Here is the input.
Amino acid sequence: MKRRDFVKGIVLASGIVGITPFIPAGKFLVTTFSFKYVRQKIANVNDIPPNNRLLFTYPKTGDIEQDSDPFRKFLLIRLPNGEFKAYSAVCLHLWCIIDYKPDKVDIECPCHGSTYNAQTGVAFKGPASKQFNKTLPEVKLEIDDNGDIYANGVIGVIGYGREGA
Amino acid sequence: MGEKGHKNIGKLLADLYNWVIDRLRRTVLFGIRLVIPKKLLSIHGFLGMLTLVTFIILGVTGVLLAFYYKPSITQAYTSVKLINNEVEFGIIIRNIHYHAANAMLILAIYHLFYQLFSGKYKVRNEVIWITGIITGVLTFLEAYTGYDLILNERGVLAINIGASLTNSVPIIGRTLASILLGFGFSDIILHFYIFHILVIPLLMIIILTIHLPRNLIFDPPVVAVLGGAILIAAGLYPVPLGEGFNPNIPPGITVPEWYITGLYALLRTGIDKFVAGVLLPTLFIVYFLLIPFIDKNKSMSWHDRPLITGLGIAGLAQIALTTVWGFYINPNKVIGLAERLAIDPIQFYIILAIIIAASIIASYVYSIYIHPKISQNRTSNKTVKNFKFTISERAITALVIAAIAIQVILTIYSINSYANKLYNISMISMGASLTIFGFLIHLARIFSAQEGD
Here is the structure.
C-alpha cells in the first residue's frame, strides 16, 4: 500500500467514525405519536344515559389552542347494554370528526360515510373499511365506586388507528 | 442653480454610478449577465425569467402576509380574515400573492413544455433540465402548503389528503408522516407554515443557483404586463375566505385548487391510495427527469423526435384531462357524498390510455406524412418578408402622452376606488395602469431604436 493511499484511508475512516454519533440525531425530527395520556376524570356515569354519547377532550391542558386540536377529541359512548366505550373522534379515512348514531348503534363519519362498529371500533363500511388501518384508537376507561369515569391511556395512534401502532 | 450646476450634479451621479458598478464587478452579481433586449422578443425565450419574477413577487408579498398570519388552529383563519378585511391593503397583498402563485405555476408548466418540445434539454443542458423539474415539483409543493395555511374547509381537506397519502407510503409512511406533519393539527399547521415560508423556498433558491443560466433575459415591458395581468386577475377573481375549519361540522363539497384537482381525480377513482396519489405522480415526474437520457436524437426540432413529442403531448393532455375531471362532482344530491365523488376507474384509465396512444400516433403521423409535405411546400414558395415597422416621431409622442394621461386617470380612479372600498376595481385599475406602463416603455424602446438608426 502506498503511503498516500494509507493516509487517505485513515482520513476517510476518521471522518466516518466522527460522523457516526450524529446519525441517531436524525431522531430529532421524528415526533412521538402521542400526547401525555395521564389519568383524567372525564364524566360521571349519571352524565350519560344508555345509548348515548359525550364528546370530551383528552388530555385536557387548559390551553384553548391545544384543547381545540381534533386529535384530543374523543367520544364516550354508553352502549344500549350499559357498557362504556371511548374512541378517538377522528375518522381514520380523512380525519373528519365522527359521531355515534343511537338509532343504528354505530359510529358514522359525516364526510364520506365510513361506519364503525360501536362495540369494537372497527370500520365495516365506507372508505375507512377498505384501508389497512381501520380500528379506532380506544381510551382505557376506569370507573370508581362513585361512578366517576376516568380516562387512563390510549391504545393506538390518533388518526392512524390501532394497526401497527 | 444654472445650466452648469445641473451638469455637475449629472456628472456626479454618473461618477457615483460607475464607481459602484466597478466595485460590484468584483462580486458574484456580475457572474450573471442580465440582458435587456432592445426589441420585442418572443416570450418563449424567457419564460423561466418570468417565472422567477413571479417567485420574487411571491417572496415580497409573502413576507408582508407573514407579519399578520398566525400558524395556529384557533387563529389561522381569523388572522387571514383580519388581513383580508381589516388590514390596510391586506386584501390587495393577499390577492396578489394568490394570483402570482397561479401565474407562477402556469408559467412554470408553459416553460417546461416549451423547453420539452424545442429539445432545449440537449446540448449540455441536462443538469439545467433536471433542476428545472425539481424546482417545478417544489413550486407545486409550495403552492400546496400555501393554500392550506388559512385552515378553511378547502385547506383542511387538502391537509388531510396529504397526511393520508404520506401515511399510505409502505414501510416508511409513518416515520415520514411523523417528520413532515408531527402529531395533531397544532403540529401540522406549524409544520406546513415552516415548509411554506422557509424550507421549500430555501430549497428552491438553492436549486435555482444550478438552474438559472448565466445569461438571463429581462424584458421590462413584458414584466410590467405580467404584473398588470396578475393585478387584473386579482381584481376579477378575488380569492374567497371560504368557511373556517370547524371539526364538529362536516365539510360541504369542496374541490381543491386547480393544480391539485388532477391528483384529486386520480384519488377519487378508488384504486389504492398509494398507487393513485403517490406512485403514479412520481412515475410521471421520473419520466420527465429521464427525458434527456431517453431522447438520444441529435435533432432539436420536435417533428424529428415523434416519440418524445407524442409523449409530451400525452403528458400535457393528461394534465388537462385529470385537472378538468377533478372539478367534476356528480350533482345528484340524492346519493351519498362518497358515491357523488366516485370516478369510474375503468372509464378513467381507459380514456387516459387512449389519450397516450392517440398522442403518439398523431405525432408519428404528423412527422412522417404531414410535416415533409408542409416543409416541401414552404421551401417551394418561400418569399423573403422583410418589412420594417416604423412609427413617425409625432405618432409616438401622441401615443406616449395619451398613455400617460390614461395612467393618471387610472391611478386616481384606483385610489378613489380603494377609498370607497371598491377593492376589485382598485386592483383592476392598478393592473391596467401597470400594463400601460409596460406598453409605454416598449414605445420608448422603439423610439430609441429609431434614434439609433
